[in-house]
Fold this protein.
Amino acid sequence: MPIHILPDALVARIAAGEVVERPASVVKELIENAIDAGATDIRVECAEGGRRLIRVTDNGSGIPAAEATLAFAHHATSKLNSAEDLAEIHTLGFRGEALASIASVSQVTCITRHAAEAGGTLLRFDGGRLITHERIGRAPGTTLTVEHLFARVPARLKFLKSTQTERGHIDGTVTRYALAYPHIRFTLVHDGRVSFQSPGSGHLRDVLVEVYGADAAAQMVEVGDASRVLSPAPMASDSESFIAVYGYASLPTLDHANRGKITLFVNGRPVQDAKLSYAVVQAYHTLLMTGRYPIAVIMVRVPPAEVDVNVHPAKAEVRFRDADAVFAAVQRAVRRALLDNMTPPEAPTMLSGRTDLVEGTSRLASATESASATDIIERPAQPSLTGSAAWERVGIPKQVGALERSTPQPAPPAPTAARNSLPALRILGQLAESYILAEGPEGLYLIDQHAAHERVLWERLMAQHELGALASQHLLDPVPVTVPAESAHLLESQLDLLRNLGFEVEPFGGNTFLVRAVPALMIQDDVATALREIVADLETGDAVLRKDLEARVLRRVCKRMAIKAGRVLSFAEMQALVRDLEACESPRTCPHGRPTMIYVGLKQIEKEFGRLG
Ligand code: ADP
Ligand code: MG
């Protein structure tokens, strides 16, 4: 093929790829236009994850009739005049590319009315060509409808993921802007049903409640100064503290398995900046278990001249003139907020200060010393068990080791067995008072609440045991327990092993033993029954290694203390349990090697409904 210049329409389609990657990118561009137009109410409607239809309706300024077609031309913008303006961008848009790009890969209908004009305009484009141009009545504002996205760009269409996945990206986009603009009321509708709505009250906390739920929002504290970040007044570059930080960050009682819930904005623009999110994580140094991350919404405001937003076509990256100063300001603000809001007794103890549903684990925590919040933040890691270092180590039992491996491990039930870890799960409810129903990225998880809790307790106990830190609790009244005559001798020979695991048992004459202390986790258990079961466990099987015997006893402890099938769990309890399970090294099996969960993939569900093939 000889070298030739591509036709404009083809150039446009190629360029569109940079701005319009998937339905969520259309949603993003249209929301940004609505925000730039001063809207206070933005409604986003989607059908089939945005593939069939995306409609964004706003009550902003609208487009003057004389300019409406121009808005869809390339490099057509009302937001930028000169090269100097580029150095001081106050709006989200400025390239004048979005509408043209979107129109080139879909069918677009625009109905708009400028606030100062009596009538409105209706425009319809098909593959970038204007096919309808009429006058029409409507209230001031703009409605942009995008249909059949990528229908004529098969290469793009092929890259779209499932409706569910695309929908997830749209949800993420809308909720991010709702967080960044608490004074704007956002409504998100999927296939005719409202799936998210922010109140537009101007308070970030109100949006947090809608996005993360009331429970989580209650465990987040305000960071920095709202007035300087949310106020529309311009910032002066020369003022001494030209970096303003505002947002909310989770207390250490609330955490997440990855950095995905650290949401960052710079001058009202969502950004993905590894360095900034690291600044947030750094503020939690020693406060969170290794491998756990905070949930945070952090907005940074700097004078426009301090930041270059013109780095990336989708504008997800920014470049600061003084990145270190911004990093330090974010870290300081988050840390300050944590220090101010953490009450010392609630500070993380050696085990876990997290909100646990577990009867027992929290009690365990109180059985150990707790350092004050300030201690933990300000002091370097200490070697002692009560210090922050131990707390960090206990969090993730790295070396569960031989014991763990000696338990039978069936093949993990999930199809994606490559990694044993769990994806983030969304709780749907409880089944038969025994199973937690949760939605994962690609299907349904049915979690056995008892087995899951056994796993959680097991990994905690094993980690403490490895550190020689298994907490023991003395009984107010020692309990005499009589065991079968043939077992007395065996029990007597294993008192030392039991002591190592937190049991203080002494011979009391004949077949009777006196229990003085039990592992702290078991403090409310029926001590006599527990001891008899443990003796029975010790008796089963051949004489085995001490480690195996210890594991057997601890498995019994976990089994007894794990929540039972048949117990109704609150939503918060289910959430806490699943979160704890997510943090486990081997979340998919219980300590006895049985599965903790059953996974039913969407593919299989579709097959069952006859939707495949
Ligand atoms: P940009 O936002 O970079 O200027 P766009 O292609 O997204 O480029 O939009 C082109 C122009 O159309 C904008 O500059 C603005 O004047 C106008 N416009 C687009 N959407 C809206 C809207 N929802 N309300 C008012 N004006 C809009
Ligand atoms: Mg725009």
Remarks:
- Residues 29, 32-33, 93, 98 surround magnesium ion (ligand 2) (CB under 6 Å).
